[in-house]
Design a protein that fits this description.
CATH architecture of one domain: 3-Layer(aba) Sandwich
Order of helices and strands: EHEHEHEHHEHEEHEEHEEHHEHHHH
Bound molecules: nicotinamide-adenine-dinucleotide, 2'deoxy-thymidine-5'-diphospho-alpha-D-glucose
Strand order of the largest sheet: 3-2-1-4-5-6-10
Largest sheet: 7 strands, parallel
Shape: globular
Structural class: alpha/beta
């Protein structure tokens, strides 16, 4: 039985991981620590907060006193560290919070884990969740990122994650802390905050709002269904070697424009198959006889926009026998179904801070 501290468990991947982990390991005890920033949604894990295996703590990973208390009180033996500022566009406008949370927050957790575990390091694990963006940009024909690829971050977000990865490595090399790191590609699925490409586009299509495609839409990302990411982290915690980095990806590269067009087609087909959707979403173009693709708008590109990411998954597949279970077409279908069935979840997020963000981005709210 483990006592696990999961940071950022009210965020997109963290919430999915909490569900996944408790389903697979119902005997474990989980402490979720989350500051409930704009992207932290307590509602996402509310049904689990009622269960006795899970304790939710509203707090900041930079608060050393709080972290020490949590380690002592709950006898934490495993950390799965998701908490971060995660949106590249926001990091370009306001980098400060990225430095504080992603670097200082990670260091606070590492320092506390070391102090707490120093006398009995056996069976302990600090797993750090990172991103493929630390490796920088790939040309169209460059080979995919391996774990040996040099770090070359190109946004404040990526630089802050790269710095946090380095601190994790240093705590292993210098102090012997049993760590592991995973660098994953773009995730999609339930509970993703609607500032990110896939949920933003799905919701905008349903609401009949413009679909802002950055630049010419030819940028390439490698997409992985979030539950597969959770399974990969599970495999690393179970059998991954300490001190090691594992890349995680979906072997699934697609250009942004092609992806947005696919989402449009998916929604048009859903409206065609289910008449009830038209009364729920009367502003969707399909209701008025137009294809959803008519909403696509090419907008000013993201500054420093990385052209392509791709992950070489050989290490995790050969060493840990990890392979994604959900193909892209099924994953997009599951994701659309989730957003259709959980309108209350995203409608509550669409006002307030998110609208302020769209105003900053596009000079107007997302109305
Ligand atoms: P998210 O923005 O949805 O969630 C982040 C969570 O961290 C939120 O619940 C937020 O409240 C919490 N948080 C932020 N600052 C905090 C602080 N100071 N103290 C405590 N909690 C704080 O992000 P996500 O997409 O779920 O990403 C989770 C992790 O996975 C991040 O480390 C990110 O770098 C990494 N990652 C994300 C992706 C992706 O595609 N989304 C891919 C690879 C890696
Ligand atoms: O690669 C892993 C990373 O994936 C994670 O580390 C980050 O936390 C996560 O946010 C994600 O970063 P991206 O910048 O790739 O994701 P985003 O959803 O913001 O954008 C995906 C692509 O779509 C990117 O090329 C920018 C483009 N885009 C995005 C938005 C929000 C658009 O064209 N229009 C948009 O409105």
């Amino acid at each position: 039985m483990r006592n696990i501290l999961i940071t950022g468990g009210a965020g997109f991947i963290g919430a999915n991981f909490v569900y996944y982990w408790l389903r697979e390991n119902p005997e474990d005890h989980i402490v979720v620590l989350d500051a409930l920033t704009y992207s932290g949604v307590k509602l996402s894990i509310e049904p689990l907060i009622q269960q006795e295996q899970l304790i939710f703590v509203h707090g900041d990973i930079c608060d050393k006193t709080l972290i020490i208390t949590l380690f002592e009180k709950h006898q934490i033996d495993t950390v799965v560290h998701f908490a971060a500022e995660s949106h590249v566009d926001r990091s370009i406008l306001t980098p400060d919070e990225f430095i504080r949370t992603n670097i200082q927050g990670t260091q606070t957790l590492l320092g506390t884990a070391l102090e707490s575990w120093r006398d009995n390091i056996e069976g302990k694990r600090f797993h750090h969740i990172s991103t493929d963006e630390v490796y920088g940009d790939l040309g169209l024909h460059d080979p995919a990122f391996t774990e040996q690829h040099p770090y070359a971050p190109r946004s404040p977000y990526a630089a802050s994650k790269a710095a946090s990865d380095m601190m994790v490595r240093v705590y292993n090399h210098t102090y012997g802390l049993p760590v592991s790191i995973s660098n994953c590609s773009n995730n999609y699925g339930p509970y993703q905050f609607p500032e990110k490409l896939i949920p933003l586009m799905l919701i905008n299509i349903l609401m009949g709002k413009p679909l802002p495609v950055y630049g010419d839409g030819s940028h390439i990302r490698d997409w992985l269904y979030v539950e597969d990411h959770c399974r990969a982290i599970g495999a690393i915690l179970e059998s991954g070697r300490t001190g090691e980095t594992y890349n995680i990806g979906g072997d699934n590269q697609i250009q942004n424009l092609e992806l947005v067009q696919e989402l449009c087609r998916l929604i048009d087909m859903s409206f065609d198959a289910d008449d009830a959707l038209a009364s729920r979403f009367p502003d969707c173009p399909y209701v008025h006889g137009n294809a959803s693709e008519s909403l696509i708008r090419f907008v000013k590109d993201r500054p420093g926009h990385d052209r392509r990411y791709a992950i070489n998954t050989k290490k995790i597949s050969t060493e840990l026998s990890f392979h994604p279970h959900v193909d892209f077409s099924s994953g997009l279908g599951l994701t659309l179904d989730w957003y259709l069935n959980n309108e209350t979840w995203w409608q509550t997020l669409m006002s307030g801070e998110l609208n302020d963000w769209f105003k900053t981005q596009y000079g107007q709210t997302n109305k």
